UniProtKB/TrEMBL annotation, chains A, B:
Similarity-based family: Belongs to the FAD-binding oxidoreductase/transferase type 4 family.
One GO BP annotation of this record: respiratory electron transport chain
UniProt cross-references to InterPro entries, sorted A to Z: FAD-bd_oxidored_4_C, FAD-bd_PCMH, FAD-bd_PCMH-like_sf, FAD-bd_PCMH_sub1, FAD-bd_PCMH_sub2, FAD-linked_Oxase-like_C, FAD-oxidored/transferase_4, Oxid_FAD_bind_N
Keyword Flavoprotein carried by entry: yes
Domain FAD-binding PCMH-type: 37-218
Keywords: FAD, Flavoprotein
Protein name, entry field: FAD-linked oxidase
Length: 479, 479
């Protein structure tokens, strides 16, 4: 059947506002966030209700039309971009972006999966609660995408990843079956917890249409400090000390090398308020919802203890909101600084926290022996064992060509090193299309077999985001 | 083939110590913890290695011998007890009970699934860390069982359930496939998180043989208080206040009715150190690993605020370890008190925290209209919305007969009420055999369909703990 016939059928189901087939408007959906790949599609579907999602999927399955769910299109792994066959169709839940219910006493919020993360954060804050998921793309990423990628971000050390914040789900399988489990319960041991399957599934098992999210008391006090690291300071031991003595009120432990801080500084106007130590710097933040705790006293006591170890050269406690903002701005400007330079080849590596220093040492040696001229930008959520180990694209070099070269050579050596330490090639960014070969290279055989069983159970015909993560067990027939 | 031939074959695989077929020794495995059901088996298998588990499962699958994994046999739902056909075989990992590795800096512990919970707690404490899972059966339950049932317990409000404490897993599927994902990573977004499937699966998808568990800094300071509740005090609002003002240092918020406290008192020697208020009592505890926080000051400030609301009649802050122990002893003696009386019919209910009071009011009316002479013991982990709503078996009444009568009448009304409030019939105890009909009654159709797809994907022949939770999609052939 021709694609125009399909478009007409989808328009019958979803209405005029539910189907975009104008090539210019389509083009805003077909390139991934990092602009590494442009796919092709004949339409973008925008269902407005869960029932429409189910009808749409049944129709797609009937005609074996591949579906690529897309949230805010902020994936770093090409997980929301169709292939270049032109036969897959994009589904966006941007018309399903409502807050369904907020229960301040149960500390939960029920939302459409198309809700933008920042809107969820703001709705929670309005009633004195916090939705703790926080990441660079929060102004445009959507909850469905956060669930599909098990998004991490800046507060994982305290509050966990998206998985840890998910209480309930509503999702539609590729045959139109609606799984409805929109409960706001902390505890519900009644068989397999189906929502866990969708977390991190990157749209390959079905379309998440709704979610119940866990909220926590809104921190009303914060203490923020900038720690200039001494050369050779043991990051993991410093983290242990800070976690323990902060009584787990630690919400941020962000490590930055001097090079990353310099890049960030270049991207900012005016001189930086703080600088790196010879071993880099750590941004530390404590947060508390209690009026009865003096967090600055606590931070001062913890910093005094840390300075005594000799691991930090100096520490600055933010004395005002603007000092705090300036410290955060440095951390947040790093990706911008990389972009201004000529971009970077990103490695979203995670290792056991006890192996962070070892990884840094081994990886630096590998980079130097690969090419002594390469420059690095290394920073990350060390509180979770997560390093963004990025190789800067040299100025005036073709970014795509350089990326391909590094990813097929040096990157594999870095991932090998992470794997040898019990680590992983993707801490929080996911697999998508770009890292599928890495999953094959590093994934345990039994684990991948189990993953393929799950894919087969939910989407045997490989309709849902085919080519991301894994394929079903049986050979797929031609679409 | 005869069962003695099977026993010989298993003995060949597992050695003499790996097979128990003496009826007297078998009898210690075939009755459930609550002594509600006695099943039958021809052997108990005790593999000593993961490879033996795989060999054993391949042999069992080949001969279509049903397998019932059993941890410490402390299930409240009959999930570890074979049926009475005599054709299922029990598997115990009691010979696989080692701590494999403890990494204090990564704050993780790797264990055999047969490790006893208390031994894991003690190993962590020996290096200044806490494994936060804590429950009545901790001296005999095993980690594999905790994972299989997603065990909750006394510290969920702060640290979450077993699912939240699991970093890595090793498991064997019914066809002998070993899934090995024993990583100690906080973040690892590399496809479907297979370990989540096993959490709460009650042995129906495979046998968990190893686990990596998350540890947290060991609290070195605690503040414990006993709150006498005023009549009609809003529990959920009190919890909100205490959570917020404790800065999330709250580890315990255990509610007890006056009747439960009286039962506990009867089970203890000597007079109780604290008593119930007219609305019952709440045991509250804060814990911190920091030397720089005065938790008693914090508790006093929070209690002063709580008293001002009028919701509590009085509050006692434990002034010594023995006062703290006495408060805890009252909470912990409740099940014992129920047993001394003549036992109870247990309802492990969870509702959204905002609906706790409404559930208590509605349920009490239902109980009174069912039989005005019935007595209740109601208590629970209200910090998680979890109530143990137990109907006492009247003295000199047959416990089994009474239980069956209540469970087929009043219990359903109570569960209906919980369900109408968005709650559940099983907060932390699981489904097992005893609550399978409840899953059918209350489970969302789409969710159950998805559960059956997962069961089918992992165990199509229904070898693993058949009759617990759900059956596969296809008709099972005769075994």
């Amino acid at each position: 059947m021709s694609q125009s016939v399909h478009v007409r059928a989808f328009r019958n189901l979803l209405g005029d506002g539910g189907v975009v087939d104008d090539p210019e408007r389509i083009a805003t959906y077909t390139t991934d966030q990092r602009q590494l790949f442009t796919g092709s599609t004949f339409a973008v579907l925008k269902p407005a209700t869960t029932e429409q999602v189910a009808d749409m999927l049944r129709l797609a399955a009937h005609h074996r039309i591949g579906i690529v769910p897309q949230g805010g299109n902020t994936s770093y792994c090409g997980g929301a971009t169709p292939d270049d066959s032109g036969r897959q169709i994009i589904v966006s839940l941007e018309r399903m972006d409502k807050i369904r219910e907020l229960d301040p006493i149960a500390m939960s919020i029920s939302v459409d999966a198309g809700a933008i993360l920042k809107n969820v954060q703001e709705a929670a804050a309005a009633v004195g609660l916090l939705f703790p998921l926080s990441l660079g793309a929060e102004g445009s990423c959507r909850i469905g995408g956060n669930i599909g990628t098990n998004a991490g971000g800046l507060s994982v050390v305290r509050y966990g990843m998206t998985r840890d914040l998910l209480l309930g789900i509503e999702a539609v399988l590729s045959d139109g079956t609606v799984v409805s489990d929109m409960r706001k319960l902390r505890k519900n041991n009644t068989g397999y917890d189906i929502k866990q399957c969708f977390v991190g599934s990157e749209g390959t098992l079905g379309i998440v249409t709704g979610a119940v999210l866990r909220l926590v008391p809104l921190p009303t006090r914060r203490a923020t400090a900038w720690l200039k690291l001494a050369s050779g300071a043991p990051l993991a031991e410093l983290l242990s000390l800070v976690r323990r003595e902060s009584a787990d009120l630690l919400t941020t432990f962000e490590f930055m090398t001097a090079r990353s801080i310099a890049l960030a500084t270049e991207a900012m106007t005016g001189p930086p308020s703080v600088r790196a130590g010879s071993g880099g710097a750590v941004l530390v933040e404590f947060a508390s919802s209690s009026r009865h705790l003096d967090l600055e006293d606590l931070m001062e006591a913890v910093l005094a203890e840390a300075i005594e170890t000799g691991w930090i050269e100096d520490a600055f406690l933010a004395q005002s909101g603007s000092q705090r903002t300036a410290m955060w701005r440095l951390r947040e400007a790093i990706p911008e600084g990389e972009k201004r330079r000529n971009g970077s080849v990103k490695h979203d590596i995670s290792v056991p926290i006890s192996c962070i220093q070892r990884f840094l040492d081994l990886a630096d040696t590998q980079v130097r022996s690969y090419d002594t001229d390469l420059e690095l930008s290394v920073y990350g959520h060390v509180g979770d064992g997560n390093l963004h180990y990025n190789v800067l694209v040299p100025p005036a070099v073709d970014r795509m060509e350089f990326t391909k070269r590094i990813e097929s050579s040096l990157s594999l050596k870095l991932y090998d090193t992470a794997a040898a330490l019990g680590g992983t090639f993707s801490a929080e960014h996911g697999v998508g299309r770009f890292k599928k070969h890495l999953l094959e290279r590093y994934g345990d055989v039994g684990r991948i077999a189990a993953m393929r069983r799950i894919k087969t159970a939910f989407d045997p015909a490989d309709i849902m985001n085919a080519d991301a993560i894994v394929c079903p067990l049986v050979e797929k027939s031609a679409r």
